[in-house]
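subagent[fold] <- orchestrator: predict structure for attached chain, return tokens only, no commentary.
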Amino acid sequence: MKVSLAEMTRQEKLDLLEDLWADIAKDPDLYESPAWHAEELRETAGRVATGKEKFVDWETAKQQVISKNK
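subagent[fold] -> orchestrator:
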């Protein structure tokens, strides 16, 4: 049974996104990152090194996104 995105709840969409990402991540060699991605990673590393940006664990980030979109 196919369900349209318009019919899905926000949580169902987030769950689907997680499932898609987990599937894609199984074989990273199948997908080439775009050139801009390496530059973005360098810029992020620079912000982290200077203390302008900090990391949070995945569960915390997910909860922040979920609570922001409620």
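orchestrator: received. Logging for downstream: The CA atoms of residues 55 and 61 lie 9 Å apart. The mean pLDDT is 91.
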